[in-house]
Specification:
The complex is a heterodimer of chains A (173) and B (148).
Chain A lengths: L3 H23 L2 H17 L10 H19 L2 H8 L14 H16 L2 H11 L5 H8 L3 H29 L1
Helix pairs in contact in A: 1-2, 1-3, 2-3, 3-7, 5-8, 6-8, 7-8
Chain B lengths: L1 H12 L9 H39 L3 H22 L3 H7 L4 H18 L4 H7 L9 H9 L1
The chains are: A mainly alpha (173), B mainly alpha (148).
Chain lengths: 173, 148
Protein backbone atom coordinates (compact mmCIF):
# COMPACT_ATOMS: atom_id res chain seq x y z
CA UNK A 1 0.00 0.00 0.00
CA UNK A 2 1.12 3.59 -0.34
CA UNK A 3 2.88 4.79 2.77
CA UNK A 4 0.59 6.19 5.45
CA UNK A 5 1.86 9.65 4.58
CA UNK A 6 0.77 9.23 0.97
CA UNK A 7 -2.77 8.32 2.02
CA UNK A 8 -2.77 11.26 4.40
CA UNK A 9 -1.70 13.57 1.56
CA UNK A 10 -4.49 12.21 -0.66
CA UNK A 11 -6.99 12.71 2.13
CA UNK A 12 -5.89 16.26 2.88
CA UNK A 13 -5.99 17.26 -0.79
CA UNK A 14 -9.19 15.57 -1.90
CA UNK A 15 -11.41 14.63 1.04
CA UNK A 16 -13.28 17.97 1.15
CA UNK A 17 -14.48 18.02 -2.48
CA UNK A 18 -15.24 14.28 -2.36
CA UNK A 19 -17.25 14.78 0.82
CA UNK A 20 -19.37 17.59 -0.65
CA UNK A 21 -19.92 15.63 -3.86
CA UNK A 22 -20.92 12.43 -2.03
CA UNK A 23 -23.16 14.30 0.40
CA UNK A 24 -24.95 15.96 -2.49
CA UNK A 25 -25.52 12.55 -4.11
CA UNK A 26 -26.45 10.48 -1.07
CA UNK A 27 -27.96 13.16 1.19
CA UNK A 28 -26.92 11.02 4.11
CA UNK A 29 -23.99 11.73 6.42
CA UNK A 30 -23.44 8.09 7.41
CA UNK A 31 -23.51 6.88 3.80
CA UNK A 32 -21.15 9.69 2.81
CA UNK A 33 -18.69 8.70 5.51
CA UNK A 34 -18.83 5.03 4.46
CA UNK A 35 -18.32 5.89 0.80
CA UNK A 36 -15.46 8.27 1.55
CA UNK A 37 -13.77 5.57 3.60
CA UNK A 38 -14.42 3.03 0.85
CA UNK A 39 -12.61 5.23 -1.68
CA UNK A 40 -9.49 5.60 0.48
CA UNK A 41 -9.46 1.93 1.47
CA UNK A 42 -9.66 1.00 -2.22
CA UNK A 43 -6.69 3.22 -3.04
CA UNK A 44 -4.71 1.85 -0.09
CA UNK A 45 -5.39 -1.75 -1.11
CA UNK A 46 -4.37 -1.23 -4.72
CA UNK A 47 -1.89 1.63 -5.07
CA UNK A 48 -1.45 0.72 -8.77
CA UNK A 49 -4.84 2.32 -9.38
CA UNK A 50 -3.21 5.73 -9.20
CA UNK A 51 -0.20 4.71 -11.30
CA UNK A 52 0.00 6.88 -14.42
CA UNK A 53 -3.06 8.94 -13.43
CA UNK A 54 -2.53 12.61 -14.27
CA UNK A 55 -5.70 14.00 -12.70
CA UNK A 56 -5.88 12.53 -9.22
CA UNK A 57 -8.98 14.57 -8.37
CA UNK A 58 -10.92 13.42 -11.43
CA UNK A 59 -9.96 9.80 -10.77
CA UNK A 60 -11.03 9.96 -7.12
CA UNK A 61 -14.31 11.61 -8.14
CA UNK A 62 -14.88 8.73 -10.56
CA UNK A 63 -14.31 6.17 -7.77
CA UNK A 64 -16.61 8.12 -5.44
CA UNK A 65 -19.29 8.49 -8.11
CA UNK A 66 -19.25 4.77 -8.95
CA UNK A 67 -19.47 3.88 -5.26
CA UNK A 68 -22.37 6.32 -4.78
CA UNK A 69 -24.25 5.00 -7.81
CA UNK A 70 -23.80 1.44 -6.50
CA UNK A 71 -25.21 2.54 -3.17
CA UNK A 72 -28.17 4.34 -4.75
CA UNK A 73 -28.94 1.20 -6.79
CA UNK A 74 -28.75 -0.94 -3.67
CA UNK A 75 -31.28 1.28 -1.98
CA UNK A 76 -34.86 0.15 -2.36
CA UNK A 77 -37.87 2.18 -3.47
CA UNK A 78 -38.38 3.39 0.08
CA UNK A 79 -34.87 4.74 0.17
CA UNK A 80 -35.27 6.37 -3.24
CA UNK A 81 -38.40 8.10 -2.01
CA UNK A 82 -36.47 9.31 0.97
CA UNK A 83 -33.80 10.59 -1.42
CA UNK A 84 -36.43 12.72 -3.17
CA UNK A 85 -37.28 14.45 0.07
CA UNK A 86 -33.74 14.42 1.35
CA UNK A 87 -33.46 18.19 1.25
CA UNK A 88 -35.65 18.23 4.34
CA UNK A 89 -33.14 16.12 6.23
CA UNK A 90 -29.58 16.78 4.99
CA UNK A 91 -28.41 19.77 2.99
CA UNK A 92 -25.03 19.80 1.25
CA UNK A 93 -24.69 23.52 2.04
CA UNK A 94 -23.17 25.18 5.05
CA UNK A 95 -25.55 27.20 7.21
CA UNK A 96 -25.72 30.90 6.28
CA UNK A 97 -25.82 33.78 8.76
CA UNK A 98 -28.24 35.79 6.61
CA UNK A 99 -31.81 34.39 6.93
CA UNK A 100 -32.65 35.11 3.28
CA UNK A 101 -29.52 33.35 2.15
CA UNK A 102 -30.32 30.46 4.46
CA UNK A 103 -33.80 30.18 2.90
CA UNK A 104 -32.27 30.27 -0.57
CA UNK A 105 -29.79 27.51 0.33
CA UNK A 106 -32.52 25.33 1.77
CA UNK A 107 -34.62 25.76 -1.35
CA UNK A 108 -31.60 25.13 -3.54
CA UNK A 109 -30.89 21.92 -1.61
CA UNK A 110 -34.49 20.89 -2.26
CA UNK A 111 -34.24 21.73 -5.95
CA UNK A 112 -31.02 19.71 -6.24
CA UNK A 113 -32.62 16.76 -4.49
CA UNK A 114 -35.34 16.67 -7.13
CA UNK A 115 -32.80 16.27 -9.92
CA UNK A 116 -31.85 12.81 -11.18
CA UNK A 117 -28.52 11.67 -9.72
CA UNK A 118 -26.70 12.03 -13.09
CA UNK A 119 -27.76 15.67 -13.51
CA UNK A 120 -27.05 16.44 -9.87
CA UNK A 121 -23.53 15.02 -10.17
CA UNK A 122 -22.75 17.17 -13.23
CA UNK A 123 -24.30 20.30 -11.68
CA UNK A 124 -22.31 19.82 -8.48
CA UNK A 125 -18.98 19.34 -10.26
CA UNK A 126 -19.58 22.34 -12.52
CA UNK A 127 -20.91 24.77 -9.93
CA UNK A 128 -19.04 23.88 -6.74
CA UNK A 129 -15.90 22.20 -8.02
CA UNK A 130 -15.42 24.50 -11.01
CA UNK A 131 -14.60 21.63 -13.37
CA UNK A 132 -14.86 22.05 -17.14
CA UNK A 133 -17.20 19.81 -19.15
CA UNK A 134 -14.16 17.87 -20.40
CA UNK A 135 -13.01 17.23 -16.83
CA UNK A 136 -16.53 16.26 -15.76
CA UNK A 137 -16.79 13.95 -18.76
CA UNK A 138 -13.49 12.30 -17.82
CA UNK A 139 -14.49 11.92 -14.18
CA UNK A 140 -17.94 10.49 -14.84
CA UNK A 141 -16.97 8.55 -17.99
CA UNK A 142 -19.50 10.26 -20.22
CA UNK A 143 -19.08 12.30 -23.45
CA UNK A 144 -18.51 16.06 -22.92
CA UNK A 145 -21.70 16.85 -24.87
CA UNK A 146 -23.70 14.69 -22.48
CA UNK A 147 -22.13 16.48 -19.53
CA UNK A 148 -23.04 19.85 -21.06
CA UNK A 149 -26.63 18.86 -21.82
CA UNK A 150 -27.13 17.39 -18.34
CA UNK A 151 -25.86 20.62 -16.84
CA UNK A 152 -28.21 22.69 -18.98
CA UNK A 153 -31.22 20.59 -17.99
CA UNK A 154 -30.23 20.73 -14.32
CA UNK A 155 -29.79 24.50 -14.40
CA UNK A 156 -33.11 25.07 -16.16
CA UNK A 157 -34.96 22.91 -13.63
CA UNK A 158 -33.36 24.65 -10.67
CA UNK A 159 -34.05 28.08 -12.15
CA UNK A 160 -37.66 27.16 -12.70
CA UNK A 161 -37.97 25.84 -9.18
CA UNK A 162 -36.22 28.81 -7.52
CA UNK A 163 -37.54 31.59 -9.78
CA UNK A 164 -40.13 33.09 -7.35
CA UNK A 165 -37.70 33.17 -4.44
CA UNK A 166 -34.81 34.38 -6.58
CA UNK A 167 -36.85 37.26 -8.09
CA UNK A 168 -38.09 38.26 -4.67
CA UNK A 169 -34.53 38.33 -3.35
CA UNK A 170 -33.39 40.40 -6.34
CA UNK A 171 -36.14 42.96 -5.74
CA UNK A 172 -35.15 43.19 -2.09
CA UNK A 173 -31.54 43.86 -3.07
CA UNK B 1 -32.26 36.42 -20.71
CA UNK B 2 -28.68 35.17 -20.89
CA UNK B 3 -27.62 37.77 -18.33
CA UNK B 4 -30.29 36.56 -15.98
CA UNK B 5 -29.16 32.99 -16.51
CA UNK B 6 -25.56 33.91 -15.81
CA UNK B 7 -26.52 35.85 -12.69
CA UNK B 8 -28.46 32.87 -11.43
CA UNK B 9 -25.48 30.61 -12.14
CA UNK B 10 -23.18 32.99 -10.29
CA UNK B 11 -25.53 33.04 -7.33
CA UNK B 12 -25.48 29.24 -7.17
CA UNK B 13 -21.67 29.19 -7.38
CA UNK B 14 -21.41 31.43 -4.35
CA UNK B 15 -23.28 29.02 -2.10
CA UNK B 16 -20.82 27.42 0.28
CA UNK B 17 -20.88 23.66 0.61
CA UNK B 18 -20.46 21.95 3.97
CA UNK B 19 -16.98 21.18 5.27
CA UNK B 20 -15.94 17.61 5.88
CA UNK B 21 -16.22 16.96 9.65
CA UNK B 22 -12.78 17.33 11.25
CA UNK B 23 -13.08 14.11 13.22
CA UNK B 24 -13.45 12.00 10.09
CA UNK B 25 -9.80 12.34 9.10
CA UNK B 26 -8.48 10.34 12.05
CA UNK B 27 -11.31 7.82 11.83
CA UNK B 28 -10.96 7.17 8.12
CA UNK B 29 -7.15 6.99 8.20
CA UNK B 30 -7.37 4.58 11.15
CA UNK B 31 -9.87 2.45 9.22
CA UNK B 32 -7.51 2.39 6.22
CA UNK B 33 -4.62 1.32 8.47
CA UNK B 34 -6.81 -1.38 10.09
CA UNK B 35 -7.82 -2.68 6.69
CA UNK B 36 -4.16 -2.87 5.63
CA UNK B 37 -3.35 -4.83 8.80
CA UNK B 38 -6.27 -7.19 8.16
CA UNK B 39 -5.10 -7.73 4.60
CA UNK B 40 -1.61 -8.61 5.83
CA UNK B 41 -2.88 -11.03 8.49
CA UNK B 42 -5.17 -12.63 5.90
CA UNK B 43 -2.15 -13.24 3.66
CA UNK B 44 -0.22 -14.71 6.59
CA UNK B 45 -3.21 -16.90 7.50
CA UNK B 46 -3.35 -18.27 3.94
CA UNK B 47 0.38 -19.07 4.06
CA UNK B 48 -0.07 -20.78 7.41
CA UNK B 49 -2.86 -22.89 5.92
CA UNK B 50 -0.52 -24.13 3.16
CA UNK B 51 2.18 -24.87 5.73
CA UNK B 52 -0.31 -26.77 7.91
CA UNK B 53 -1.31 -28.90 4.93
CA UNK B 54 2.33 -29.77 4.23
CA UNK B 55 2.85 -30.67 7.88
CA UNK B 56 -0.18 -32.98 7.80
CA UNK B 57 1.16 -34.76 4.72
CA UNK B 58 4.54 -35.16 6.39
CA UNK B 59 2.91 -36.53 9.53
CA UNK B 60 1.02 -39.05 7.43
CA UNK B 61 4.11 -40.30 5.57
CA UNK B 62 6.81 -40.10 8.21
CA UNK B 63 5.77 -42.91 10.68
CA UNK B 64 6.24 -45.70 8.06
CA UNK B 65 8.97 -44.62 5.64
CA UNK B 66 9.85 -48.23 4.71
CA UNK B 67 6.25 -48.98 3.71
CA UNK B 68 6.04 -45.87 1.53
CA UNK B 69 9.46 -46.61 0.00
CA UNK B 70 8.29 -50.18 -0.80
CA UNK B 71 5.13 -48.85 -2.39
CA UNK B 72 7.21 -46.42 -4.46
CA UNK B 73 9.48 -49.30 -5.57
CA UNK B 74 6.45 -51.37 -6.64
CA UNK B 75 5.14 -48.44 -8.60
CA UNK B 76 8.53 -47.99 -10.28
CA UNK B 77 8.60 -51.70 -11.16
CA UNK B 78 5.08 -51.53 -12.64
CA UNK B 79 6.02 -48.43 -14.54
CA UNK B 80 9.17 -50.11 -15.91
CA UNK B 81 7.20 -53.14 -17.07
CA UNK B 82 4.63 -50.96 -18.72
CA UNK B 83 7.36 -48.95 -20.43
CA UNK B 84 9.20 -52.04 -21.77
CA UNK B 85 5.94 -53.49 -23.14
CA UNK B 86 5.45 -50.42 -25.21
CA UNK B 87 8.88 -50.79 -26.93
CA UNK B 88 9.35 -53.08 -29.98
CA UNK B 89 10.92 -56.42 -28.97
CA UNK B 90 14.45 -57.16 -30.39
CA UNK B 91 13.13 -60.26 -32.27
CA UNK B 92 10.55 -58.16 -34.08
CA UNK B 93 13.20 -55.55 -34.89
CA UNK B 94 15.38 -58.25 -36.51
CA UNK B 95 12.45 -59.54 -38.52
CA UNK B 96 11.59 -56.18 -39.93
CA UNK B 97 15.22 -55.21 -40.79
CA UNK B 98 16.25 -55.76 -44.49
CA UNK B 99 18.32 -58.98 -45.24
CA UNK B 100 22.09 -58.71 -45.57
CA UNK B 101 23.81 -59.35 -49.04
CA UNK B 102 25.21 -62.66 -47.76
CA UNK B 103 21.74 -63.84 -46.90
CA UNK B 104 20.49 -62.78 -50.31
CA UNK B 105 23.23 -64.70 -52.14
CA UNK B 106 22.67 -67.78 -49.99
CA UNK B 107 18.95 -67.64 -50.73
CA UNK B 108 19.68 -67.39 -54.46
CA UNK B 109 22.00 -70.36 -54.25
CA UNK B 110 19.36 -72.43 -52.47
CA UNK B 111 16.80 -71.39 -55.06
CA UNK B 112 19.11 -72.44 -57.96
CA UNK B 113 19.84 -75.80 -56.32
CA UNK B 114 16.13 -76.36 -55.85
CA UNK B 115 15.47 -75.44 -59.50
CA UNK B 116 18.17 -77.92 -60.67
CA UNK B 117 16.67 -80.68 -58.56
CA UNK B 118 13.13 -80.05 -59.76
CA UNK B 119 14.19 -79.46 -63.35
CA UNK B 120 12.77 -75.95 -63.59
CA UNK B 121 14.64 -73.15 -65.40
CA UNK B 122 16.53 -71.00 -62.95
CA UNK B 123 14.73 -67.68 -63.45
CA UNK B 124 16.53 -65.88 -60.69
CA UNK B 125 20.10 -66.50 -61.76
CA UNK B 126 19.20 -66.45 -65.47
CA UNK B 127 17.80 -62.96 -65.08
CA UNK B 128 21.02 -61.88 -63.46
CA UNK B 129 23.34 -63.46 -66.07
CA UNK B 130 21.32 -62.66 -69.24
CA UNK B 131 23.25 -60.22 -71.44
CA UNK B 132 21.65 -56.92 -72.12
CA UNK B 133 19.79 -56.45 -75.42
CA UNK B 134 22.00 -54.21 -77.63
CA UNK B 135 18.89 -52.55 -79.04
CA UNK B 136 17.90 -51.33 -75.60
CA UNK B 137 21.10 -49.22 -75.53
CA UNK B 138 21.05 -45.52 -76.51
CA UNK B 139 21.05 -44.78 -80.27
CA UNK B 140 24.69 -43.48 -80.25
CA UNK B 141 25.99 -46.75 -78.70
CA UNK B 142 23.87 -48.82 -81.11
CA UNK B 143 25.70 -47.19 -84.09
CA UNK B 144 29.08 -48.25 -82.64
CA UNK B 145 27.85 -51.84 -82.30
CA UNK B 146 26.62 -51.95 -85.93
CA UNK B 147 29.94 -50.55 -87.24
CA UNK B 148 31.84 -53.22 -85.36
Amino acid sequence: MPAGLEIERLYDQHAQPLYAFLLNLTRDEADTRDLLQEVFVKIARDPQLLHGIREERAFLIRLAHNAAIDLIRRRGTRERTRENFAAETVSPFAPASDPDEETFRNNLAGALAELPAEQRAVAHLKLWEGLTFEQIAAALEIPPNTAASRYRYALDKMRERLRPLYEEMKKAE
Amino acid sequence: MNDEKEQFEQRLRHQTVKQVPAGWRAEILAAVADDARNQRSETIRKMTLAEALMRRVRELLWPHPAAWAGLAAVWLFVFGINFSMREESPALAIKTSPPSPEEVSELRQQHRLYAELVGMPDTVTRDVKRPRDPLSKPRSERAEILAA
